[in-house]
DUF2567 domain-containing protein
Amino acid sequence: MAERPGGTRDAGECSGPQADGRSDRGPVPGTPVPAAESSAPAPERTPSVVSRPTTEPFAPAPPAPPGERGLPADESLAGPAAAVGTPAPLERERARAEPEGTRARLLAGLVCALAMVVAGPLLGLLWAATAPRLDVDAALAGAMSVFGAQSTTDLYFALICAVAGVVGGLLAGWRAAGAGWPVPVGLAAGGVVGSLLAGWTGQQRRSGEVLASLPPNATALLRDLAEFHVRATGLYLVLPGMAVLVLALFLWAGGTTLGWPWRRR
């Protein structure tokens, strides 16, 4: 390359990329870029994926298989309990507690029924001891007092059964309020049997004494009038009816209701 005096170079001698101020490594800043080159799309940047090290100390543990979570391996055949994720031991505990609760309720009803049955003979003895006695001499003379004695005997039986029913209903509500439907059923069934036993016990206690005081030639009508027994058969329902009524009032006052088999509380 020739150099002229004054330190200037011949423009014709400068050829190649250095002639227009460009270098082979790109355009010189400030030099306008042709339109063809500026319209070319810029290359897209690929996002770099940062891989987490496999030895990260706080990495979550992989989920356990269904069999280790307390669920059956085939969740499609496990039923609604597996769908909601209920553990199998809890389901077994509930299934075991249901029969135990049913047995406890039935036992409470059976105890109530037996209590009413056992109270029957005691009520009969009380009735025979407190009921007014028939005046045999007045009955033989044809006095009308025999009919008054009959109605008074039935009234005493009804009062004794009513008081016993109130006590039985209160005790059942106090001790077995949450046992559900077996309790009133036991009170009703046991109350009917107890009333029949009370009437039979009182009759056996007093009838022999009254009939023995009659003369041998007494008529059958006189013997029927003098016999000690319950004449109004509807009074046998006083004991169970009063017990169930008091139990219902007790539960209503306490804000609870009877649980029937088809309706769970």
About this structure: Residues 10-14, 16-23, 73-78, 259-265 have pLDDT under 50 and may be disordered. Helices lie at 35-38, 80-83, 88-130, 136-140, 145-175, 182-212, 220-226, 238-254. The two ends are 110 Å apart (CA to CA).
